[in-house]
Amino acid sequence: MSGNLILSDLTTLAMPETFLRVQPPADALSVEQISFSYPNGHRVFSAFSLSAAPGEFVAILGPSGCGKSTLLNLLSGFVQPQAGQIRLNQATVSPERSELGYVFQAPQLFPWLTALENVRFGLRMAADLSESQQRERALQYLRLVGLEQAAQRLPHQLSGGMQQRVSLARTLALEPEVLLMDEPFAALDAISRNHMNEETLRIWAELGQTVLFITHDIDEAVFLADRVIVLNIAPGGIHSELKIQLPRPRSNLKTRRLPAFLDYRNELMERISQVMALSEARVSPSLSRVLETESIL
């Protein structure tokens, strides 16, 4: 062995740990100091920042009026911030980015198309695959969400939960790296909603996408997420974050019974109560001024 090689090995061993440490992967989605107001002057975000790591499941939790849906519209590129940047895989976000998928609150299915053709619709618009390949992939994702046998049914022949699964399959068929989900199960009954929560985690575990999931439901946030971001009433930004360290895979029967699940739920209930108290404290002086003005008049 040459002296130079030995010296090289010793130099490597002597190098500080900071030089040897592997750099973490870049965030899949990053929001950097954005500000946004509607044309009527209503301010929603001011110097707002957040990020999601590759493969992370992040739940965005908050009461009505905190800007959750506005945030998803910004993240998708449907609307643009007045300041700051939103990046998807280190590049500016836009609705045309194929790495980005969006699941809406309502299924938004075409009533005249079968489940299979609804799932195929985005693939037809992208025109990257042949017709047979489009059908094959659409059927693949219907199979993934458990609806292969319903491929030829029209939307009115499907339950609400089945319609939402078709909507999810349509988005997944485009194979996005980041999935934005805007309260997709809010309209479902409790049993169907819990089932869809389980199905979402099963699919996420198989595909490994980064997910940002908007919800009003504390139990849903705890059950699904790696991390829950609690929002203040607009334009207050982020109130706090909570890492959810429950074991995976998670199931309704086992996970929701864990003492730690109840602890996380109670902690988030306390934080939402703080958000509501801050909101009421901010509104009360304004209301008092209005009442005083009316009494003078």
Secondary structure layout plus pairing:
Elements: H1 3-14, H2 17-20, E1 29-37, E2 43-52, E3 57-61, H3 68-76, E4 83-88, E5 91-92, E6 100-103, H4 115-126, H5 131-144, H6 160-172, E7 178-182, H7 190-207, E8 210-215, H8 218-224, E9 227-231, E10 238-243, H9 252-255, H10 259-296
Parallel strand pairs: 3-8, 3-9, 6-7, 7-8
Antiparallel strand pairs: 1-2, 1-4, 4-5, 9-10
Helix pairs in contact: 4-5, 4-6, 5-6, 8-10
Give an overview of the whole structure.
With 297 residues, this protein is an alpha/beta fold. The chain has helices at residues 3-14, 17-20, 68-76, 115-126, 131-144, 160-172, 190-207, 218-224, 252-255, 259-296, and strands spanning 29-37, 43-52, 57-61, 83-88, 91-92, 100-103, 178-182, 210-215, 227-231, 238-243. It has a six-stranded mixed beta sheet with strand order 6-7-8-3-9-10, with helices on both faces. Strand 7, helix 7 and strand 8 (210-215) form a beta-alpha-beta unit. The radius of gyration is 23 Å and the shape is globular. The termini are far apart. Residues 4-20 and 286-297 have low confidence and may be disordered.
